[in-house]
Design a protein that fits this description.
The complex is a heterodimer of chains A (about 160) and B (about 130). By secondary structure, chain A is mainly alpha-helical. Chain A contains 5 helices and no strands. Chain B is globular and about 50 Å long. The termini of chain B are far apart. Chains A and B meet through helix 1, helix 2, helix 3, helix 4 and helix 5 of A and helix 1, helix 2, helix 3, helix 4 and helix 5 of B.
Chain lengths: ~160, ~130
């Protein structure tokens, strides 16, 4: 039994590590692809954080709707999305704006990220709920709309 | 080569975040996301320490080491997606004041921790 537990924990840790490596590499790719000026490299971080929040909102709904593989959340939610989005660079970006004499921009950036990222979580969840509801309506055997409340001939 | 350093630091950062979150959850039974709060504040301290140290001390690590620690490790140790998800979960479950306190606490705590990191660098720069 302890061996099985150790094997399970090792697989979870490997999934988190692999997801973290992939998510961080993707974030680095975004930082190369998007233009960033010295002392104001805010766009790459803003993009990954808002995009990551949109995806985690949808991902959580999909996880609850289905019977996901036990490594999906460690790999995708904890590892990939956790490694893709970042809080430390968000603060470092604001610090960079402050250091270059733009305190107003620093404060605006801190506020704007939160004001965009939190609604993004909700938007992602709403989109996913629409998809899940549609899939359930179309799914075999799960079509309550077409099933009459009382089957004919059951009344006494 | 740079991408490999980012991926290595990212893997280590994500595993550390997972471990710290589990440890903090065991210590605290509350619904408040103390684990994510802890990694975000600690990561903010570390990024100020590493980035500040590289700016002040010539030869404080190579650009490769800075990429490994700042972009990879600190980037993946901290998270915005879980922070956002936890905030929305607190808000929609009716704990609106908790949600507001969580956002303010994490941002202000992170700013304070980053200030502490820069202060530590300044202290060592004077020695």
């Amino acid at each position: 039994m302890p061996n099985a537990l150790i094997a399970h924990r090792s697989r979870v840790l490997a999934a988190v590590a692999l997801g973290g490596a992939l998510g961080s590499s993707l974030r680095y790719g975004v930082s190369l692809a998007l233009p960033h000026a010295d002392g104001g490299a805010v766009w790459p971080t803003l993009t990954v954080n808002v995009l990551g929040c949109l995806v985690i909102g949808a991902f959580t709904v999909f996880l609850e709707a289905g019977e996901p593989h036990h490594l999906l959340r460690p790999f995708f939610g904890v590892g990939l999305l956790g490694g893709f989005t970042t809080f430390s660079s968000y603060l470092a970006d604001a610090g960079g704006l402050l250091a270059t004499g733009q305190p107003l921009h620093a404060a605006l950036y801190l506020l704007l990220t939160v004001l965009l990222a939190l609604p993004a979580v909700i938007c992602g969840a709403m989109l996913a709920r629409t998809v899940v509801a549609r899939a359930r309506r179309r799914g075999p055997g799960a079509a309550p709309d077409n099933v009459p409340d009382t089957a004919p001939g059951t009344e006494s | 080569m740079t991408l490999l350093l980012v991926a290595l630091g990212g893997a280590a950062g994500a595993v550390l975040r997972y471990g710290i979150d589990l440890g903090v959850r065991r210590g605290h039974g509350s619904a408040f996301p103390w684990g994510t709060f802890t990694v975000n504040v600690v990561g903010s301290f570390l990024i100020a320490l590493f980035a500040g140290g590289a700016a002040v001390f010539d030869g404080f690590g190579s650009p490769g080491l800075r990429t490994l620690l700042v972009v990879g490790l600190c980037g993946a140790l901290t998270t915005f997606s879980t922070f956002g998800q936890d905030t929305v979960r607190l808000y929609t479950s009716g704990a609106r004041s908790h949600a507001a306190r969580y956002v303010l606490g994490t941002v202000l705590g992170g700013v304070a921790a980053a200030g502490l990191g820069l202060g530590t660098v300044a202290l060592f720069a004077q020695l």
